[in-house]
């Protein structure tokens, strides 16, 4: 038994004399994980070409997807282990009818300081008010182009207008943190960098340019569309020579602000993976598997343990050992074998 980690929480240890105020989830490289990304479904109302084919992928049947109670149990378990930030992702999380309940209950879980959501925005105009009421702290809206024709080309759906209405609804509802995620694609939206940055002029939102990642069955990323964080930054500085470096979250490795603009611009090296040293993220797939890295293939089945009567201590034990085994970075993680997940919609991003 590894002395350093599990002894913190074994019930028979005299916690007063030993355990710190709140245990924490760490790995063998000294990183601490306080941020859990929970995929609440796999289904989506878009068909982005770098994510899945028109016909979709092999989705799990409903009974294999975590229930409301199971998700909230996991939130409680990790909050006891020092996690203070939750993000709900998908698929498209707004397709799940209990999403405002999940947000509301999570925000009132002791130890959870903020709850966030990543959505494609198409249904956001319907939910923004309720989500704000339920205490949602932040929303990331995935919009890869501001051009209707291009949007149809990349998502295979004519939904840009609704996605932009979703963005406006988030502003109107007063959701504290609003971010626009744009996957940077060479020869596709690299010509729209200025338009995207202009979204940050009058409103304090963050535009995040994200490197394309190899999580699509058809390997679109091999077709020369990869646009590196380095090149994105060069383009930004070419168009905005007086752009300044500023501060952001752990993921926002490179973050800037145009002088006198209200918002910020971030560049996420999600493929280059030079942000792994500060990684603080845990992932839970919609079918209840812990992924200790986005690129890792060896998963840890929390659902099975929950459905076979696992105790809180056993769930914590599994979470702790899963993260203790986290590889040093995404490159090492990519070498941890293979899994059946062919699309980002099955991982949760
Ligand atoms: S690639 Fe893995 S280790 Fe690196 S930042 Fe992403 S999740 Fe963390």
Task: Describe the protein's architecture and organization.
The protein has 349 residues and is an alpha/beta fold. The longest helix is centred in the middle third of the chain and has 14 residues, at 160-173. The chain is built from eleven helices and 14 strands. It is 28% helix and 17% strand. Strand 5 (114-119), helix 4 (124-133) and strand 6 (138-142) form a beta-alpha-beta unit. Helix 2 packs parallel to helix 3 (99-107). It has one domain: Aldolase class I (TIM Barrel). The model is unreliable at 1-16 (pLDDT under 50). A twelve-stranded mixed beta sheet has the order 9-10-11-8-7-6-5-4-3-12-13-14. A two-stranded antiparallel sheet has the order 1-2. Residues 273, 275-276, 279, 281, 293-295, 329-330, 333 line the site of iron/sulfur cluster (SF4).
Question: Nutshell version of this structure?
Answer:
The chain has 349 residues and is an alpha/beta fold. The protein has helices at 3-6, 68-79, 99-107, 124-133, 148-155, 160-173, 193-198, 229-239, 302-307, 312-324, 330-334, and strands at 25-26, 32-33, 35-39, 85-89, 114-119, 138-142, 177-184, 206-211, 244-245, 254-257, 264-268, 281-284, 289-291, 300-301. β3 (35-39), α2 (68-79) and β4 form a beta-alpha-beta unit.
Q: Which molecules are bound besides the chains?
A: iron/sulfur cluster
Mean pLDDT: 91
Number of helices: 11
CATH fold node name: TIM Barrel
CATH class: Alpha Beta
What structural class do the secondary elements suggest?
alpha/beta
Corresponding CATH superfamily:
Aldolase class I
């Amino acid at each position: 038994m590894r002395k350093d980690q599990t002894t913190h929480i074994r019930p028979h240890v005299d916690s007063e004399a030993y355990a710190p105020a709140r245990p924490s989830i760490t790995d063998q490289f000294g990183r601490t994980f306080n941020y859990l990304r929970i995929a609440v479904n796999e289904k989506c109302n878009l068909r982005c070409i770098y994510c899945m084919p028109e016909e979709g992928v092999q989705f799990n049947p409903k009974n294999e997807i975590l229930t409301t109670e199971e998700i909230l149990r996991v939130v409680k378990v990790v909050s006891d282990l020092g996690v203070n930030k939750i993000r709900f992702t998908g698929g498209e999380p707004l397709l799940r009818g209990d999403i405002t309940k999940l947000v509301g209950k999570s925000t009132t879980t002791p130890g959870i300081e903020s709850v966030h959501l990543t959505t494609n925005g198409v249904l956001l105009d319907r939910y923004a008010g309720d989500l704000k009421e339920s205490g949602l702290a932040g929303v990331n809206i995935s919009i890869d182009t501001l051009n209707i024709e291009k949007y149809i080309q990349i998502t295979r759906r004519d939904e840009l207008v609704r996605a932009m209405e979703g963005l406006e609804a988030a502003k109107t509802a007063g959701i504290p943190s609003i971010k626009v995620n744009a996957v940077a694609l060479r020869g596709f939206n690299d010509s729209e960098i200025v338009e995207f940055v202009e979204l940050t002029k009058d409103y304090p939102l963050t535009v995040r340019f994200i490197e394309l990642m190899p999580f699509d069955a058809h390997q679109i990323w091999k077709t020369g569309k990869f646009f590196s964080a380095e090149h994105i930054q060069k383009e930004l500085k070419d168009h905005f020579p007086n752009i300044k470096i500023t501060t952001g979250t752990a993921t926002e490795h490179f973050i800037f602000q145009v002088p006198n603009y209200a918002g910020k611009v971030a560049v996420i090296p999600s493929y280059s993976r030079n942000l792994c040293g500060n990684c603080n993220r845990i992932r839970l797939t919609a079918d209840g598997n812990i992924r200790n890295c986005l690129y890792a293939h060896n998963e840890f089945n929390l659902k099975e343990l929950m459905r076979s009567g696992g105790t809180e201590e056993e769930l914590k034990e599994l979470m702790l050992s899963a993260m203790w085994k986290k590889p040093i970075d995404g490159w090492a993680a990519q070498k941890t074998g293979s899994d059946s997940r062919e699309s980002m919609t099955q991982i949760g991003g």
